[in-house]
Amino acid sequence: MLKTYLKKFSILRFFKIYITITKNKFLYNTLEKQEKYIKKQFKECLDYEIDFNKQPVTFNQKIQFRKLYDNNPLYSICADKYRVREYVKEKIGEEYLIPLYLVTDKLTEEQWDKLPNSFVAKANHNSGPVQIVKDKNKVNKKEIIRELNNQLKLDFGSLTLEKYYSDIPRKIIVEKFLKENIEDYKFNCFNNGEIILERVTKASEISNMYDPYSWKQLNFTTGNKIDLKKYEKPQNFEKMLEIVKILSEDFEYVRVDLYNIEGKIYVGELTFCESSGFGKFTDEKWDYKFGEFWEQKKLK
User: Fold this and answer.
1) What is the phi-psi region of residue 13: left when phi exceeds 0, alpha when psi lies from -120 to 50, beta otherwise?
2) Count of CB atoms within 10 A of residue 191's CB?
């Protein structure tokens, strides 16, 4: 009964997203229409306005300007969870890449059967869902394969109006499963030299922001509940800082995600439009502070 329900839910979710993408392509096919759509969504999500005829001030406003007017070709390369591996390799070396088991244009049962018992599988052109397989003998193989391949049919860029995602050649990638309840270190890197770290506990979706130099908790976040528990710096933290500075040097703003397994550092992903520019800060002043940190070139 539960399996049947989950399968129906997955199918319904796919068609809902597909319909939204189709609608967006038809209704918002010009910059003027996209501006109007974003203005409405922005007000509903964040309770304040965005004016595309004025230079942006807040972090979320600057993300919206990036989405519509910034055509940096590096975005589609580095947002691609497969092609970014070559970028990382050239910048800091391949020892920081999560081991890759498979990359394919379509996942098959034959490929699945050759994979190790545990792994993480995902599409390279979107923000999920990610399939974390801890024991492939205890999951519904056909359902997971179908769900992953369905993701390849969806133009994520048209869903979020982050157009660089639409330029990514779509693939399924399968990587090593690193750790149960892994901690995610998300470094928000700005071109004025500021770095704000978000430490995320994935198992419970709680997080807190840190000053990475003093390790002081800043007690705000976006999208999660604030995690007030005290944590020690991970091993090799200075190396983590060194890595994010190198990986962020080509961009005005980028979020660099790292994992740290007992001192062994892995690069997760690079993100250019955090929460698609609709991330509500638990303390609104940080929306303005992040905007100050980001010295964005004039885009319009």
Assistant:
1) alpha
2) 17
Let me know: does 96 contact 266? Beta carbons within 8 Å.
yes
Q: Rounded to two decimals, what is the model's pTM?
A: 0.93
Residue 82 carries which side chain, given as an amino acid letter?
A: Y
Task: Characterize 32-62 residue by residue with b for buried, 16 or more Cβ atoms within 10 angstroms of its Cβ, and e for exposed.
Answer: eebbeebeebbeeebeeebebeeebebbbbb
For the stretch 2-49, pLDDT in tens is 344 445 557 788 878 889 898 888 889 999 999 999 999 999 999 999
Cα–Cα distance, 199 to 258 (Å, whole number): 10
Q: Are 290 and 58 in contact (CB under 8 A)?
A: yes
Q: Tell me: the pLDDT tens digits for 222-256?
A: 977 899 999 999 999 999 999 999 999 999 999 99
- The reported pLDDT for the residue numbered 2 is 39
SS3 82: coil
> Is-cis flag, bond preceding 129, omega within 30?
yes
Per residue in 93-104, pLDDT (tens digit) is 999 999 999 999
Distances (CA, A) of 30 to 24, 42, 297: 10, 18, 22
Angstrom CA distances, 73 to 84, 154, 187, 209, stand at: 12, 21, 22, 30
